[in-house]
Amino acid sequence: MLEFFRDKWGREIDKSSLSPQLSRLYARGVLGRIPSTQGWFLIEAERHIQGFRPYLRSGRIAWAQPETVNRDPSYEPLLTRDIEAADAANAGDQFFREIQQQLESPERKAQMEAIAAAQKKLKP
């Protein structure tokens, strides 16, 4: 992008002044990320269709339903703010499910019963 600004408008832009702006636009859902190139892409609100996700395919941004492209390696999934938020929420949910399973395991219940029995014996 820095090269684009220099070539297009003849202006040198400092990376440190551009990064916060890009992050702000990403947080607002205006820009997305291309993981393989660390590049950015514009999310055109009028082109976004519910249930479709952005992919990089043959050097172009393609919007498709995940279930139609999930086994096609020519589609690279792209990052958007809502996808990252959903991934973080899913990761958090998964973490709490794992903790709940550990707490409800037979081994854990046996440990808790043993602790309770030992505490009973210690009471006068």
The stretches of 5 or more residues where confidence is low (pLDDT under 50) are none
Q: How many distinct beta strands?
A: 5
Sheet having the most strands: 3 strands, antiparallel
* Radius of gyration computed on alpha carbons: 25 Å
Distance between the termini: 75 Å
Percentage of β-strand residues: 15-25%
Q: Helical proportion?
A: 40-55%
On the 0 to 100 scale, the average pLDDT is 80
Number of helices: 5
The backbone outline, from C-alpha atoms, is elongated
Structure description:
The mean pLDDT is 80. A 3-stranded antiparallel β-sheet has the order 4-3-5. Strands 1-2 form a two-stranded antiparallel sheet. It is elongated, with a radius of gyration of 25 Å. The longest helix is centred in the last third of the chain and has 23 residues, at 81-103. It is α+β, with helices and mostly antiparallel strands. The chain has helices at residues 2-9, 15-27, 66-69, 81-103, 106-122; strands spanning 31-34, 39-42, 53-57, 60-64, 76-77. The protein has 5 helices and 5 strands; from the N terminus they run H-H-E-E-E-E-H-E-H-H. 52% of the residues lie in helices and 16% in strands. A hairpin with a 4-residue loop joins strand 1 and strand 2.
